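Researcher: Following up on the earlier apo prediction. This time include the ligand. It's pyridoxal-5'-phosphate, with the SMILES given after the sequence.
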Amino acid sequence: MGDSFDHRHIWHPYSRVAPSTPVFNVTHAEGVYLTLDDGSRLIDGMSSWWAAIHGYNHPRLNEALQQQSQTMAHVMFGGLTHEPAIGLAQRLIRITARPLDTVFFSDSGSVAVEVAMKMAIQFQAAQGKLQKQHFLSLRKGYHGDTVGAMSVSDPDNGMHSLFARTLPRQFYADAPQCRPEQSWDEQDISSLHRQLCEHHEEIAAVILEPLVQGAGGMRFYHPAYLEAARQLCDEFDVLLIFDEIATGFGRTGSLFAYEQTHVVPDILCLGKAITGGYMTLAATLATRVVAETIAQGEPGIFMHGPTFMGNPLACSVACASIDLLLESPWQQRVLSIERQLRQELSHCLQLGNVADVRVKGAIGVVELTHPVDLQRMPEAFVQRGVWIRPFNHLVYLMPPYIIESEQLTQLTTAMMETIALFDH
Ligand SMILES: Cc1ncc(COP(=O)(O)O)c(C=O)c1O
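Model: Understood. Below is the ligand-bound prediction.
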């Protein structure tokens, strides 16, 4: 358990600086295991929030970092360039859809979203559409915690009322309801259609997480939604931004979720697993049309440039992570994780406090009838030797792809037993 200094002085994600929910002190991470300061070992079911797809302490990633640190840890990217950034941009362009062929590097997923939003505004402004400064996003979506990213995330989950005077005004369509296994219901797109009809003159872009709404509810939806959204965006002259910060790099069973459709976005945000969970790095890819249009408008440049843009350490480890992923049988791994999660988590449906079980790729979700007990449930998981971090009504798994079948069974068993413990 974390000590009292931590409780008194350090903010954790969505917490307060006061004794609140427990924190556990990690001393070592290797493969799928996290070791705590009391020596106990936990199987990691979270991949450090979608990121550590190869597991921890991977020799290939360690080597990439060590080698890069001996040549150049960082240099400014303004006016300078380097092989790690060029190599990473080449890889990203190669593995994404052809129209996406420009890359903007930034430091985190939220910033990649801010960059995407600014690109869309500059793209519209360059064509004299100065009133197109707002965005249309989906309820139950999540795009990050910075102000712009927050403004396009779910207004209720994001407590927009609290920040009402700061957050830019945006538009929201109802969250998609049609699940991937159901037959497509065209009604599902009607809310997005209505919003576009009413507000398209003010909308620069639609932004959404393709196929999986992550932190806003771990919801899976129908690929036809994206086909319909693409058509509407073209019809109403707005750009389409896909936020694949969570879904990117194989998690849903394809390298990028949009590959399960015929749709290509104008702008694509990537982050999280881009470095295999080693360093903070994100990328915003845009089509040449977007990039050239921005260049032709006022002021002729894109108005963004972070200090640590294209950090060589992060780019090197990202190159190594992408190579490692592509050389590995990641598709079979994700598929067998999916099969096993489907089979083993289905038993949770027998519990009275379980409302739904859903699986997509290497993501397994058990939705409870009541919000989880954040004081007691994480500890119950730790006592069972697993690291699972639930939120709201959701207990979910997104293990590293290298997890072995018995280790995954340990996770699903611990999940079932712990949920049963809270079934009263
Ligand atoms: C879909 C999506 N977009 C953006 C973000 C924000 O990324 P970061 O936490 O790196 O700022 C997240 C983080 O969970 C996410 O899941």
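Model: The mean pLDDT is 97.
Researcher: Noted. I'll compare it with the apo version next.
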